[in-house]
Amino acid sequence: MEDFEFKPLAKGLGFHQTKKQVEETSPEEIPTEIQWATKSMESRGMNLLEEEFTPPLPRTANPPQKLAVTENASTAPTLDELIKNLEKNRLPTEKANINQKVVAEKLYASATISWGAGFLDGMLILALTLISFITLLSITNVDLVQTWTMAYSPMLAISSVAVLIMMGFVYYSVHRIFLGATPGEWAYEQQLGLPKDLDQPSYQAKIILRSFLNVITGFLFFPILAALTGTDLLGSITGAQLYQRR
């Protein structure tokens, strides 16, 4: 406190004037820079007050939202409209299925076993059986002619017939499952089942059953019955019907 010096108020600071004296001060005594600044601020403030306020977006309360909900509710499809749309979507698929059935009926007709196709398939099965015998003998180095002439036995005949039956079963099953027909049936424009049925596993099982019954009965039993009755008995039993292409 000893270091501070208190000085009296001087005129230069302006504290010597009272409030009345300040109000009575003429504008000439106020500097021109201060007068210009105060006038510009007043003019700017008046201009801002004179400008009209325009909000950027109209902001409303809850009623428009309620209207939007009611509009969406009015435009929502009813149960009857949904059912009609489902029926319309089903119609093309049903028409496509009907068209496939009509095309199948026009292109294919039920047929019986062809003797020409059976003879050609029998020749091919016999050839495959001989090829398998030749392969077996070449591997084992056994003379088939000498074996048949010198030591004939029933087991040799049974084994030969078993190989023939096995080759026939594989021949019919593989060709009919993957190609729809054997070479003999293809030559006589026949096939087993319609094209839409060949991709179904259940129909492939029917084809295997038909091939098994055909070879196990000696290849000739069911063809003779089909020739006598005029119907495809194997197709009726197994469900794998033989068709003729028109």
List keywords for this structure.
246 residues; mainly alpha; three-stranded antiparallel sheet; 3 strands; elongated
Describe this structure in words.
There is one protein chain. The protein is 65% helix and 4% strand. The model is unreliable at 48-53 and 66-74 (pLDDT under 50). Helix 7 packs antiparallel against helix 9. It has helices at 19-23, 32-50, 63-75, 79-107, 115-140, 144-150, 154-178, 183-187, 201-216, 221-229, 233-238; strands at residues 108-110, 190-192, 242-245. It is built from eleven helices and three strands; from the N terminus they run ααααβααααβαααβ. The chain is mainly alpha-helical and 246 residues long.
| Stretches with pLDDT under 50, minimum 5 residues | 48-53, 66-74
The structure class reads: mainly alpha
SSE series:
HHHHEHHHHEHHHE
Q: How many beta-strand segments?
A: 3
| Largest beta-sheet characterization | 3 strands, antiparallel
- Determine the mean pLDDT: 75
Could you tell me how far the N terminus lies from the C terminus, measured between alpha carbons in angstroms? 129 Å
How much of the residues is beta strand, in percent? under 5%
Question: Brief overview, please?
Answer:
By secondary structure, the chain is mainly alpha-helical.
